Amino acid sequence: MSEFLQSNVWALSVYALNLVLVVVALLHMLYQRRSPQNLMAWLFALILLPLLGVLVYWVFGSRKLLYKTNKSNLTFASTVAGDLPASDNAMAQSLKQLLDASQLPTTSVHNSIHAYSHETLWPQLEERLRQARESIYLQTYIFELDNTGQRLAELLAKKANDGVEVKLLLDSIGSFDLYRRRMALRFLEEAGVEIAFFQPVFKTFFNQQVNLRNHRKIYLIDQRSVFTGGMNLSGDYFGPSDERRDTERWVDWLFEITGPSVVTFAQVFAEDWYYTTGHSVPVKTTDGQGMKAWPSHRDDFDQAWLQVVPSGPDIAGDILFESLLYAIYQAKSHIQIVSPYFIPDSSIMNALLIAIKRGVRVTLLTPEKSDHLIFDLGRSSYMRELAEAGGEVYLYPSGMLHAKLVMLDHQAVLLGTANLDYRSLFINYEMAVFAYSQTLLTELRPFLHTLRLKSQRFVPKTSKGRRLFENLTRIFAPIL
After folding, report:
1. I need a surface site. Which of 199, 300, 410, 476 has the fewest CB within 10 A?
2. Is residue 307 a contact partner of residue 434, using CB atoms and an 8 Å limit?
3. Residue pLDDT, tens place only, 387-403
4. What angle do CA 446, 382, 208 make, to 5 degrees?
5. What pLDDT, on a 0 to 100 scale, did the predictor assign at position 56?
6. Quick one: DSSP state of residue 378?
7. CA atoms within a 13 Å half-sphere pointing along the CA-CB vector of 341
8. Which residues contact 120 (CB under 8 A, 6 or more apart)?
9. What's this model's pTM, rounded to 2 decimal places?
10. What is the 3 state secondary structure string of 232-245?
11. At what angle do helices 9-31 and 36-48 cross, to 10 degrees?
């Protein structure tokens, strides 16, 4: 027996070490309050990939900031402009109560919000940037110096030379090409543009922060108006129409907001900039004049209610997930989802299935093929389950559909940067907005109708082999 132990001492030591590491990782997961779905997925990975699974979890498995040296949780001053009318819809009132309870007093009225597609954005954004007099703060996941990015960069350099304060905050993974060759941005810095990279890869790889990516898009001009949504700063999303055909671009939206809600976006940018650079950004607040203090670029102020919902590691709870789940249960007639990736948490999926049983019409519009094959494999079982329960699933075949929104009863729409997957709802830094605006809904309806007419109805594959493969991928879907 002793000879057996001596000859296998190395194998036993490795086994014991792996067991200890798995237990430590499990305790860490329990401390972070993960869903059972995500917990089981990581446990499978840890068991099937000894030692390697633990290393992968240590680098990529964290979803919250745990240490005092990390980014502080966001705090907000109230942006409510006066008392909210009691006559507005019940969903808005209830979600306001939920947000307030989570220390997010970000509900406001007297806002204007308008949608721009990949076909219409460029002239609007270019005009706003040219009109900037005080500051331009741009925060994005991807920035590329292609034709569109180069024209944007030249415009930013010109504004900086003219005395406008220009700051550019990029995610170091999303904009990795520029992160590793920062010399390409030297002409911007020489013009006076301040550039910073969020969560530098080589500084955060082994401290459980490299997984926490900043997916927020905040294009803030003079702290008076802001663009947000799914579009990064790249020719794949938008640009001058003479550079490439709009049909070649990804289908997406940006939303321009003017009004008191801009304050929340400014606060988020200021916190992210301070965390990255150590330098403060003064945030302007309302001056008590209400709507007059927030001049719109358009005359049709529609008094929109907006509820800004930042989410991510710098938010104590999972308020975006909770708000979306609550809104699904509140819907009475129709839930329309547009998302490039559809890998929902089990609670969201169950809420959608229950909504169908309640008589709510649930539709999903998603690309036939996204830019990530692994996400396409992971979503299959969810689309099949939704379709077999009576939901309508449509696949957009004409390129990449990157737009993301959830329309609820033709009364409210959830928009912003978050996809309907685990990473957006629980890991990434994101920005979302619940908007109650008939003007916005009127703008979106024809565009959504056109997308649906171009799409094909999803028909689930019925073979047993296909179902088995889809269910196997579903095991690991929560850690994609």
Report:
1. 300
2. yes
3. 999 999 999 998 899 99
4. 100
5. 65
6. H
7. 24
8. none
9. 0.85
10. CECCCCCCCCCCCC
11. 170
